[in-house]
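Ticket #4471: structure export looks truncated?
Reporter: QA, pipeline team
Priority: medium

Steps to reproduce: submit the single chain below to the structure queue and open the exported record.
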Amino acid sequence: MEPLEQYLVVHGKRFVQLTEPLITFYRGVVKVNTASLKKLPKTEYVLFLIDPKRHKLFVKPCSEDTLHSMRWRTPSCKPRALIGHDFICLTMELMQWDCERRYRIPGRAAFDEDGAIIAFDLAAAEEMGGFGPTLEEHKQNPLVSRFAEDTIITLEDRDEQL
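Actual output as written to the record:
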């Protein structure tokens, strides 16, 4: 078998996330995943609320007649691509993202005074370009390494608040 050290390790984030809410920004389109729809199962229309200072984005259920409401699912209950070049450009500029790249942001269900919402921390965005490091580079800087029968997990020290 040939040596694998120069092969690229594919990040787990390159695969579809089925259980947790995600929102994707890419070339003038914003789209949530099916898990987001399942967190707000009876919601057909939403408002997007953004806090530019805290870099938070919220998806809040609303009625069809609410000013600025958007239908976020298709009639067959699939996520609907929302075309919003101005919104995407402003968000990408705010976050200093590259307009040619795809960004995926994990979210979580939360509650406000009116009920369930989905909260996204824009600072937690994952850029979706490329595969990953080579196997050799991956081995030099592992997040999880095995030692005999024990697993050693190395975590970065960072403060997270939503």
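Status: closed, not a bug. The export was complete when the record was re-opened. Leaving a note from the reviewer for reference: Helices lie at 34-39, 85-95, 135-140.
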